[in-house]
Amino acid sequence: MRYVSFRRPDGTPSFGRIEGETIVELATDAAPSLKAALTDGSLSDLADGAPYAAADVVLLPVIPDPAKILCVGLNYAEHVKETGREQKVHPAIFVRYGDSLIADGQPMVKPTVTERFDYEGELALVIGKPAHKVAAADAWDYVAGYAAFNDGSARDWQRHNIQFTPGKTFPGTGGFGPALVTPDEIDDLAALRVQTRLNGELVQDQPVSDMIWDIPTVIEYVTAFTPLSPGDVIATGTPGGVGDKRTPPLYMKAGDKVEVTIGTIGTLSNRIIDEQ
């Protein structure tokens, strides 16, 4: 299944299931959001509601209100190499905030305080049930589905000190969408390629199998130090090819179009605008 969060034509937030060019609403009083339906376990049992033409609604981030967004840094060897960093024994983890997220088709906001606004195409996963101290062998059972992610990064702010967070969570810089794609829709997740295009030019292209720490390992590590709830998000890291490490550097600017495609999971597309 493919699920989206959206605003109805009257502006009311809702969620539903994609069927071709139609979105079938699933929201009820009992489960008013996709996160709520994951939390109470009702997602697969909800009755169909009103159908909407996809063109008549405005998408929201897949999960508009995650309690936690955790991001994995330096999870592809090519990216580690281009940064000149040493590969560590454990993954680097930093956080984003909910107000940094934007949906597919919505503008991605370049902060006024940086000219080094970089793309990072990533595979994101959404947690489907409470997860704490999960063993890697059991980790797949906790994944509700996947989406594309663009971890828009203000590189200078990222490097003000040793912590990444200041450069990673400006409002409106994290693309997330277009849909939550359930695992049964994907034949071979590891074979899917994380591809980023800037103004049509392919700038990142590596398979999920190139991750240094695979998804079960990441879930085991993260849930060892913090409990996760349904609707929480983990962005699993970006491949090599980031703009900051190119010669000359390649940064995003107003008017650009950035697309993150991950095989059958789909394409996340955003235009860049300047912060107002």
Properties at a glance:
276 residues; mainly beta; Fumarylacetoacetate hydrolase, domain 2; twelve-stranded mixed β-sheet; globular; Rv2993c-like_N; metal ion binding; Fumarylacetoacetase_C_sf; Fumarylacetoacetase-like_C
Topology overview:
Layout (H helix, E strand, L loop, with lengths): L1 E6 L5 E7 L2 E4 L8 H7 L10 E3 L4 E2 L9 E5 L3 H7 L8 E5 L4 E2 L5 E3 L6 E2 L2 E7 L15 E9 L1 E2 H4 L15 E8 L11 E6 L2 E7 L7 H11 L7 E3 L21 E6 L4 E8 L2
Parallel strand pairs: 6-17, 8-14, 9-19
Antiparallel strand pairs: 1-2, 1-5, 1-14, 2-3, 3-4, 6-7, 10-13, 11-12, 11-17, 12-14, 15-16, 15-18, 18-19
Family: Belongs to the FAH family.
InterPro entries: Fumarylacetoacetase-like_C, Fumarylacetoacetase_C_sf, Rv2993c-like_N
Keywords: Metal-binding
Structure write-up:
There is one protein chain. The protein is mostly beta strands. The protein has 2 domains: about 1-60, no CATH class; about 70-275, Fumarylacetoacetase-like, C-terminal domain (Fumarylacetoacetate hydrolase, domain 2). The protein is built from 4 helices and 19 strands. It has helices at about 35-40, 75-85, 155-160, 215-225; strands at about 1-5, 15-20, 20-25, 50-55, 60, 70-75, 90-95, 100, 110, 115-120, 120-125, 145-150, 155, 175-180, 195-200, 200-205, 235, 255-260, 265-275. The strands form 3 sheets. Strands 1, 2, 3, 4, 5, 6, 7, 8, 11, 12, 14 and 17 form a 12-stranded mixed beta sheet that branches. The chain has a 5-stranded mixed beta sheet with strand order 9-19-18-15-16, with no helix packed on it. It comes from Sphingobium scionense. Keywords: Metal-binding.
